[in-house]
Amino acid sequence: MGGSTESFAYPPIADYSLWIADAKPRRDMTPEELAERHRKDRATYRRMRERMEIDPEYREARLAVSRETTRRYRERHPATEEEKEARRARDNARYAALSKELGDRRRRSYFGEDAERIRANNRRWHSNHREERNERRRARRRSDEGDAIRAKEREVRRREYERDPQRFLTSQKEWREKNPERARLYVRVSNQKRRIAGAGTSFTREQWLAVVEAHGGRCAYCGADGPLEIEHRVPLCRGGTNDISNIVPACRPCNRRKQKKTDAEFRALLQRERAIKEASSEKGPGPDGSAPAG
């Protein structure tokens, strides 16, 4: 910006958005006058943006004015569903083009008191739009991409469990205590899916105890003698059955780690991990007596 900084003044903050009152209406301007008006508007907007970058109080005031102006305009001119959809498409396209820049800008502003203000605003928004968000989530899960969305969510939960199993299990327990009806519903749905996947096959209590005894009361994978759970050699989701020949006892950590792997796949994984551990131990301590890396 040219000129002396002492004579420069940022545009004042009005309590509503309005162009200069004594200006000629834009519809009556000649093309030259309209181009000049646009040039001045861009210069004004640029100065406003520059001050907003360095003056948080000015930024909040300008944003408050803009939000109120937008709210009043939308009250007077409610958008149709087609217009809303077109606006969402424009917003999504703009975000896709500027996502990295916007993300960097938000991260730069996310510290100190501003971070607490952002978190408070986020909590307030989520609280006020809880049902709307839940309905959108349910609609997405019912859409054609529902299977892919659920698979992605399962992958996220799997990574959370691997990072901190105890924290994950604690959060699950707290959720069940707060939502007992939904938790029971999930159990009923899960049991029904298991019965369907099992194709009507089952086993008796005596058969299960015999399998546990055959494995010496220990986990079939790691040999732990802790509490044992029923584990399918071939998971039900991959065509396994509830026949006793497809059942082995497993401790909880192995049962959780095995997930959708078959018995052969999980044993191969354990074998690779043991080989890596043995190879690391054979290297011996380092020159300074420290344990080998890896």
Structural commentary:
With 294 residues, the protein is mostly helical. It has a domain at 200-282: DNA Binding (I), subunit A, CATH 1.10.30.50. 65% of the residues lie in helices and 3% in strands. A two-stranded antiparallel ribbon has the order 1-2. The radius of gyration is 31 Å and the shape is elongated. The relative contact order is 0.04.
List the helices and strands and how they pair.
Elements: H1 31-54, H2 56-76, H3 81-109, H4 112-128, H5 130-142, H6 146-163, H7 165-178, H8 180-197, H9 205-214, E1 228-232, E2 247-251, H10 252-258, H11 263-282
Antiparallel strand pairs: 1-2
Summarize the structure.
The protein is built from 11 helices and 2 strands.
Oligomer: single chain
Assign the CATH topology of the domain at 200-282: DNA Binding (I), subunit A
Q: What is the string of helix and strand elements?
A: HHHHHHHHHEEHH
Helix content: 55-70%
CATH class of the domain at 200-282: Mainly Alpha
Per DSSP, the total helix count is: 11
Assigned CATH architecture of the domain at 200-282: Orthogonal Bundle
Radius of gyration: 31 Å
